[in-house]
Amino acid sequence: MDISRKTDYAVRVLMGVAEAEAEGQVCTASQVARRKLVPKPFVRKIITELASLGLLQTRRGRRGGLRLGVPANNLTLRGIVERVEGPVYLNRCLVRPGECALERFCAAQGVWRRAQEAMLQALDSVTLADLVAQGKVLRMQWIKAMAEH
């Protein structure tokens, strides 16, 4: 399984908006693109899709900007990935039982299933709020390290 560029950018955009909200601010598409290194041609498309999925709210004008459509602590990384990509799976046989003729005696399927469960558990265990908090810690560590050199 490979997380698409679109999903990677969607997570970055949501993190940028959540970071701004955590500081009591509203941000614009241009700000998110710059801060999260999302190419401008993609940022508007991603924002439009996230808004259509209910993950973002957009508002034009003087008091406009981007806001989360779902509280950051209620949105897991799995929730983001599945809304953007669809169901997350390592192998088709895990979501479409009976598709593979070898299913009943496949030694690999049990491994795929355990890996799938571990991956989904990892994605479920992290919220957007967790990512924002971890990002803040990492930035502070980087600033401290740069100051020491």
Percentage of residues assigned to helices: 55-70%
Distance between the termini: 39 Å
Mean pLDDT: 91
The main pleated sheet reads as: 2 strands, antiparallel
Helix- and strand-based class?
mainly alpha
Tell me the strand percentage band: 5-15%
The topology string of helices and strands comes to HHHEEHHH
Task: Give the overall shape.
Answer: globular
Précis, in short:
By secondary structure, the chain is mainly α.
What would you say this structure looks like, in words?
The chain has 149 residues and is mainly α. Helix content is 58%, strand content 5%. The protein has 6 helices and 2 strands. Strand 1 (56-59) and strand 2 form a beta hairpin. The relative contact order is 0.15.
